[in-house]
Amino acid sequence: MGDASRLEGMARFGIRTDSAVGVTLTELRRLARGLRPDHELAAALWASGIHEARILASLVDEPARVSEAQMDAWVADLDSWDVCDAVCGNLFDRTTFALDKAVEWSTREPEFEKRAGFALMAWAAVHRKDLPDAAFASLLPLIREGSTDDRNYVKKAVSWALRQIGKRSAGLNTKAIRTAEQMGRLDARSSRWIARDALRELRSDAVQARLRSR
Known about the structure:
The protein starts with 6 loop residues before the first helix and ends with a helix. By secondary structure, the protein is mainly alpha-helical. It folds into two domains: 1-61, no CATH class; 88-212, Leucine-rich Repeat Variant (Alpha Horseshoe). The chain has 14 helices and no strands.
């Protein structure tokens, strides 16, 4: 299924292509729909080290069989933002350990492990309707602390987490806006950038109208 002519385009979007073969996400999703959930297959796909195989692993694994040890092992292997976000949004956010691992990873030093912490917060805010708002409100101090990290893939994930939590409910919107305002007063360029980025969306007419309609 690979097409090497796609690798240059992938690289332009900041995707690591050392182990990529050039299969699109659309193709991977179509392939996954034809497969049964399979924990052992997911493990083998991940172990292959192939970029697209690891994304496919996140699509076919069984959340109920994913352990904390597996999550830690996979997050330590991350070397590209797209695999990071796919694993967090297709699989990890559906586990019972999702928010615990998000908290843990958000304080890690390696760039993609730390990104995974905030990406997991963002995806959980979207997908985990079973979790109370209080669980997400408790993440806001970590988001504020993480905002001082100026690395591109971290600060974008911090902004993403803040915005998704703030779009979950009117109460969380108020708390997220307050957090962003606090970040805007920090003596850190990345914090001020995140604050501007988040406030633009959280205060937008579209978001406010959607929250009022709920």
